[in-house]
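ARCHIVE CARD
CATEGORY: sequence design from structure
SOURCE FIELD: tokenized fold
FIELD CONTENT:
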């Protein structure tokens, strides 16, 4: 072990060898946190801690596997005895063992988002509600937020605040939908992703004997990416660590970007309040990026107020300045970026896989996909349609799920008439209704259709379906492994034959996808690390996969990566392009309502910057299409929040800084000149241009003692006003455009400035 410790810098070594008690490791971007967490686990085992007594929680299966393999290289096969995985996979495992205490069987199904939305749609239809008002996505998100805040359907329906909010949104039935959704999931012996956390909390709350068992089992609890935990996740880990107090959390508050999923940055900011004896170790040396990239990121993130103090630095080369490219349109931006990639590949002998294009929203990928295809550069999109979300794959998986769990309503609805066997939607609705009225499961009705559906013309076909499923259950109980079961079911149901008969291009692709699924199941069975090779074990593995765990389907890894910034966290590339840096796109218009949201957007930009190892390019467009309309754009305020000494800025139409001030935040923008004509073909690069030079501003004004900002609606052109920092001036122009209301003010000492009134504070003097 000593030779591994010698590879660490002093703070890393201190974190690895911390003996016991609460520990927080603040790990800056590129600081080697995976190595530290890996070596810490290996060190604990070397000190005599049994691997069975260590719980390590990650946010992706891939991260867990990478850490397990690294530990195995250090300590050997004992690493396989660790309890290591994502929150959802570990707690699903516990619920498989203990779920009977909550009324579930060990073979419960795990509903993915599509299953949950399908059930929500069914309930909305059964309640005769308008699905244009009760949009399934919104309803599901509302229920998900409630569960992540540990609000049960009973608590939801007793809370007047929730009910008033729903009534105000003209959706007063959400509480009733939540109640029905929860009950239907329970009847189907199914949990959605949120239930895996919610039910674990309920299990530990209501069954102290079970909690006590796992508290004594897990002598050390470790949490990676702690800044991304939500209330539910933190409560579970805190309970599990309550006996031994050996909790180690690793994270970076500057990379907390998942509030929309319920992540609570206060978990890491206020961790010391729960553990006064906390030892804190800061990993501040960045081993990934050049000095210019690290310094640029630091100059940006220091604008945030809510953060833990740290000073990230690097001993790497200074590197090139960050290039900023301005495009006429979004299509031109796509061409500029792809041409730069083409040129960089030639000049620096780089591969496609060395490049990543990061954007704020998935919709931005189109222009880059088109441009990459035109010059024959291969690419992959992360976060698009997952292999396991394709129709033919979900069809066969539904058969596998129903074979394991005959209470699974969503799997049943998917396969009852697949392949077509003369059972229509009306008959399916009758089955669901009969089960509900009789207080029985759907499977009970399907097994006895003549009794429950007397007179229905599809009784014979329903009975044939139930006999088919029963035969699969017999095979499952006989001990066949996952591959044997999947192959048998694919052939016996006729799905494989039907796909093979379709000789269209699309049909051949679907058949190949089915073969690839069977291949993946065979790999699962042949993997010596998988002790459980049964069909239920495979289904649990698949149900908990994320897009970050997917490999390239054709095995060709030499591709340019396109993905959202949210999906890029934890990854690194030699050359990163952060595109679409425009106001209302990045930062998003939805994140400009308060400082907390704006700071999260800034952290998101920080994450994007710190993905880059050697080269970083930022780009924005002067115009882009939005909902079919051409709109003119202003460059993002974030561009001017980076210290200009680290940037190489465009010369033509060079941005001019103008500032919208408030005591809460400084908001920067650019003066946009008329759009330039499209540049000639070929990459439009600006790396050889000098940064913008700006005159030193006049000293800022000290506000009057009686300064009280006036209501923005009272402001008019011609009024004399006072600004708390720019001093006195006169309004020369008002621009009233909804939430983007602006005032142009000619100040006595600071010159003319255009102020965004949602941020600026002006006092009318006369």
């Amino acid at each position: 072990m000593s030779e591994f410790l010698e590879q660490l810098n002093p703070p890393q070594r201190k974190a690895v060898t911390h003996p016991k008690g609460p520990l927080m490791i603040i790990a800056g971007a590129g600081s080697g946190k995976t190595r530290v967490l890996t070596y810490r686990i290996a060190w604990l085992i070397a000190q005599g801690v049994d691997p069975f007594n260590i719980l390590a929680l990650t946010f992706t299966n891939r991260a867990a596997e990478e850490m397990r393999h690294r530990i195995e290289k250090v300590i050997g096969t004992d690493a396989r005895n660790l309890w290591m995985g994502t929150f959802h996979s570990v707690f699903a495992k516990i619920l498989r063992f203990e779920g009977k205490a909550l009324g579930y069987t060990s073979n419960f199904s795990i509903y993915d988002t599509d299953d949950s939305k399908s059930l929500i749609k069914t309930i909305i239809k059964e309640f005769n509600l308008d699905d244009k008002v009760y949009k399934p996505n919104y309803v599901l998100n509302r229920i998900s937020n409630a569960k992540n805040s540990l609000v049960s359907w009973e608590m939801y329906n007793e809370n007047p605040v929730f009910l008033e909010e729903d009534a105000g949104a003209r959706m007063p039935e959400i509480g009733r939908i939540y109640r029905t959704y929860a009950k239907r999931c329970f009847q189907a012996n199914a949990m959605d992703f949120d239930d895996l956390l919610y039910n674990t909390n309920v299990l530990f709350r209501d069954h102290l004997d079970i909690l006590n068992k796992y508290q004594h089992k897990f002598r050390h609890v470790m949490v990676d990416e702690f800044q991304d935990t939500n209330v539910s996740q933190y409560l579970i880990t805190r309970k599990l660590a309550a006996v031994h107090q050996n909790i180690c959390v690793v994270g970076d508050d500057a990379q907390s970007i998942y509030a929309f999923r319920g992540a609570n940055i206060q978990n890491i900011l206020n961790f010391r309040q729960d553990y006064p004896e906390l030892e804190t170790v800061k990993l501040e040396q960045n081993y990934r990026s050049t000095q210019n990239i690290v310094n640029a990121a630091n100059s940006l993130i220091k604008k945030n107020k809510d953060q833990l103090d740290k000073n990230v630095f690097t001993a790497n080369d200074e590197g090139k300045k960050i290039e900023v490219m301005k495009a006429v349109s979004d299509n031109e931006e796509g061409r500029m970026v792809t041409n730069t990639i083409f040129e960089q590949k030639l000049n620096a002998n780089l591969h496609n896989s060395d490049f990543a294009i990061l954007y704020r929203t998935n919709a931005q990928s189109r222009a880059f996909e088109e441009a990459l295809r035109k010059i024959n550069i291969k690419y992959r999109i992360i976060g698009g349609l997952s292999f396991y979300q394709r129709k033919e794959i979900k069809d066969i998986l539904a058969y596998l799920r129903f074979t394991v769990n005959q209470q699974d309503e969503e799997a049943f609805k998917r396969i009852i008439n697949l392949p077509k066997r003369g059972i229509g939607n009306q008959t399916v609705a009758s089955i669901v209704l009969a089960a509900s009225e009789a207080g029985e499961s759907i499977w009970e009705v399907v097994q006895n259709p003549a009794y429950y559906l007397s007179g229905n013309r599809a009784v014979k076909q329903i009975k044939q379906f139930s006999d088919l499923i029963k035969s699969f259950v017999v095979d499952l109980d006989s001990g066949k492994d996952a591959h044997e079961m999947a192959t048998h079911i694919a052939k016996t149901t006729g799905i494989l034959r039907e796909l093979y008969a379709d000789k269209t291009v699309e049909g051949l692709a679907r058949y190949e996808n089915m073969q690839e699924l069977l291949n993946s199941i065979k790999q699962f069975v042949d993997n010596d690390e998988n002790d459980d090779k049964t069909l239920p074990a495979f289904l649990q593995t698949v149900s908990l996969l994320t897009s970050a765990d997917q490999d390239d389907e054709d095995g060709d890894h030499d591709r340019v990566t396109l993905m959202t910034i949210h999906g890029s966290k934890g990854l690194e590339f030699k050359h990163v392009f952060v595109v679409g840096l425009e106001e209302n796109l990045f930062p998003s218009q939805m994140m400009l309502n308060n400082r907390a949201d704006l700071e999260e957007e800034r952290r998101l930009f920080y994450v994007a910057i710190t993905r880059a190892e050697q080269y970083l390019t930022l780009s924005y467009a002067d115009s882009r299409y939005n909902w079919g309309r051409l709109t003119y754009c202003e460059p993002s305020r974030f561009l001017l929040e980076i210290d200009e000494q680290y940037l190489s800025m465009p010369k033509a139409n060079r941005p001019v800084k103008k500032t919208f001030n408030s005591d809460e935040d400084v908001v920067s923008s650019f003066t946009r000149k008329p759009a330039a004509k499209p540049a000639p073909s070929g990459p439009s690069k600006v790396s050889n241009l000098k940064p913008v030079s700006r005159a030193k501003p006049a000293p800022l004004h000290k506000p009057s003692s009686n300064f009280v900002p006036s209501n923005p609606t009272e402001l008019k052109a011609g009024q004399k006003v006072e600004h708390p920092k720019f001093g006195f001036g006169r309004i020369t122009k008002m621009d009233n455009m909804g939430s983007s209301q602006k005032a142009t003010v000619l100040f006595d000492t600071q010159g003319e400035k255009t102020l965004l009134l949602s941020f600026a504070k002006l006092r009318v003097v006369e």
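CARD ANNOTATION: The radius of gyration is 29 Å. The longest strand covers residues 612-621.
SHELF: design records, drawer C
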